[in-house]
Structure formats: C-alpha cells, structure tokens
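Table S5 (text form). Sequence records supplied for joint modeling of the two-component complex.
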Amino acid sequence: MAVNYSIRELRGAAEELTNKMGIPFNEWSQSFLKRRLLYATEKLGIRKHEQLLEAINNDEQKEEFSRHMTVPVSEMFRDARLWRTLRQHFNETSYNDTINVWIPDVSTGEELYTLLILAKENGLSDKMNVWINHNSKSILKDIENGIVGTRKLDTNSFNYKRFEGTASFDNYISEIEGGFQLSNDLLKNVNFVHGYFLNTAPQERMDLILFRNVMLYYKKDFHNTLKDYVDQKLKPGGLLCVGVKEVLPSPFSSRFECIDVKEKIYQKFKVLTD
Amino acid sequence: MKGQYKAVVIGGSAGSFSVVSRLLSKLDSNFPLPIILSLHRLKHVRSGLVEGISLKSNLKVIEPNDKEKIVAGNVYLAPSNYHMFIEHDGTFSLSTEEPLNHSRPSIDHTLSSAAFFFRAKLVGILLTGANKDGAKGMKDIADKKGYTIVQDPSTCDIDTMPKNALRIMKPNKVSSPDEILSFLNNLA
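The corresponding structure-token record, covering 462 residues in total, follows.
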C-alpha cells in the first residue's frame, strides 16, 4: 500500500504539500520526492494522495510523515578525511568567542555526534554551541537520547578509526536492547530546533555550517536560494561544508573560496567587497 | 543499430572491473553514446576505481557530481557511497538514501531510473557479480522495450547476478564479454 505518483500527479502533490506544510516540496528534485513519498505512504499505509492530505491534518500522522520523509541513513565520521581536516582547522584557529555550528538538516544525528566527539577530544566542548534542525520531533528526541544508527556500530567504529580519534569508540557508547546508545555526556550546548531549516534558522551567525548532502535533494534551480540562505547565516571567515559530490552553485567566487576541493569545504571571505 | 540508442548502462559487481576495463580499452574512441556504469565498490574508498578504469579506457571516465548533465561519449561511474539516478531532465541525481540489496551505489536504482528516462533508447548490460542487485533494473529496461544483454553465466567470475536476472526477465542476448564488445562497437 503506497501512492505511486506519475510525474504530472507529483507536481500537483508537491504544490499541495508545500502549501499545507510550509516546506518547499515543490523544490525537491522530482525523482527524490517520488521515492520519499512512495516510502512514506507505504509506511503510513496510505493508498491515495487525498488520504495523505487528510492524514497530515492530524498532528500525530504529520509527525510520522515527517519522520518517514527523512533520509535516515548517514554514518558517523562519513568521509573521515573531512573530519580530520576540520579538527586541524579548529586547532589552528584561535577563537576569541564561542564556536557556533549549525547543522540545518540533521538527518538522524550521526553528524552531530561526530562533531561532538571531535569537540570533546580537542577540548572544545565548552566553547562550541551547536544548533540542529529537524521537522520531526520524534527524531530530535531520538537524537537527544543518543539513539543513532543502532545497526551501524561496525561502520561507525571503523570510520572512527579512520578519523584517528584519540580514544576508543567504545568509550562513547553503551549497549541497549536492540542496539547502542551514544553517551549523553557529549550533549553540551546543543540546541534542538523543531522545524524546517528555511523557516526556523538560529538568530546567531555561524563559524561552521554542515550542509553536506542536502542540496542533492533539491532541484538545481533552487541551489542558489539555499546557498544565499546559508551564506547569510555564516560569519565572515566561517566554513561551509557541502557533500563531496555536490558543487556550490556559481557565482560564489566573490564571497567564498574553496579551501579543500576533495572535501568540498568553502570558506567565506573575511572581508567582503560587495 | 546505429542511431537507435541514446545511452548504454552497465551494472556489475564481483569480477566486473576486469570486464569493464577490457570493454573500454577496445571500444572505438569515437563511441557516440554515454556509458553509465554502476559497479559495486567499497564505500569508504573514494579514489582509485575511476583512475583504474581510466588507465586503459579510450573514453573519458568521470565520477559525476550531483546534477551533472549526461554527455555523449563520456563514461560515468557511480561514486562510492552514493546511489546514482538519472533524473527526469537527463542529469545525474546522487543520493545517500538507504542501501538497496546491501549496496550503495545500487545497480537497480541506476538501471531502473535510466529505463524510465531513456525507455526504448537504452541498452542495459548486466555483468558478473555475487548479488541479486541489477535483476529488477534489467527487467525495468526490458519492460520499457530497451535492449538488454546479460553476461553469459559460464563466462562470469561469479554468476549469481546474471542468474538472478535471468530468473525474472528474458534478455535480448546472453553474451560473452567479447560478444558484448562486438555489439557495442556496432553501435559506433
């Protein structure tokens, strides 16, 4: 049981969902939206689009829908070289104030805990403020409880070794029924923001924005809107990380320099001319 | 057959690297179609494969970025730890969604999305491998009237993947690597 939209139906459905939920589904890449809707409606046991529109009037069902529309799979220390590069950057940069980090689309939380482990191992936990956004309250709750990727212990542990962490990955986890839980001690100065990142961004400006593998899911024409948005939230000199197979849309050369081509790390100029 | 097709998509797993290398080393350098490769690979090793395939290839081999336009004459390899789809506007669309058949990139995802976009103008080829991935994608290509070739299981390092495809679809050809090469060169 699921709704398998045709492309024409999908356009109409995207507009209706955008209007109803305040999230720009109409800017999602079409094949991605089609797959996520197929998955979410199957999980919700919904066969018709009208049923879906009805269902999301109910807060509980809307929450479930938001949960299932999330791409749930990421892994801790994915692209270990990126995390080694960020560690080096933090260690070589003198921060007079706090280090503000934003993860606009936190997915299932692995990237957050990766960052928190990096901060802890480098004595930055007290200095770092982190904001994370998600549409789903239950996913935010899971992240707060350290329930992250319960079936991916081996992958996360392997990636941690490639990151060359200074402790043992086991120090950060405890076994629970059906999986493992990350240590709550890591959760210092983390702000959990319920809401879509384009609607509920933090007021503060950021030293680092982790925006990896987010643009993948949007139409190319919308990438500049996304870029301009995160640009506004970034301090001069701040870093913007996108996914290794994503490209920051042009023009950006008057505002950003790509300081790591392999890991797609961009630095906003300290002095902007425009 | 010249001019009948717009793209070639090839899926493969264990043992397919040498077959793909051989095909690309013997293909005409003016091969007129894009070749889209979805091969199972280690997810934490990002470099090496494209360089390895490029060594002997007569055609330019690229791991596309997200939203990159498909250009005739190039060979595109699905990047490690990403699914690679063909989007409805003829660009690549990458994704970190759930692995399919324990695989990311998943051959089924690439083949099925290519079938949807190119329809009867697609040649789909499934090579050696130890997984059921690719079978459904090949069926989708056949259902859209694309041309399908499954590597002859007797010539495979591991025949699980071709055999799984042959269980659910009837390809236009079951061929050895040399026969596949000859077929492709006839498209040029």
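Note: The interface with chain B takes residues 7, 29-32, 35, 71-74, 78-80, 158-159, 162, 213, 215-217, 220, 223, 243-247 of chain A (CB under 8 Å).
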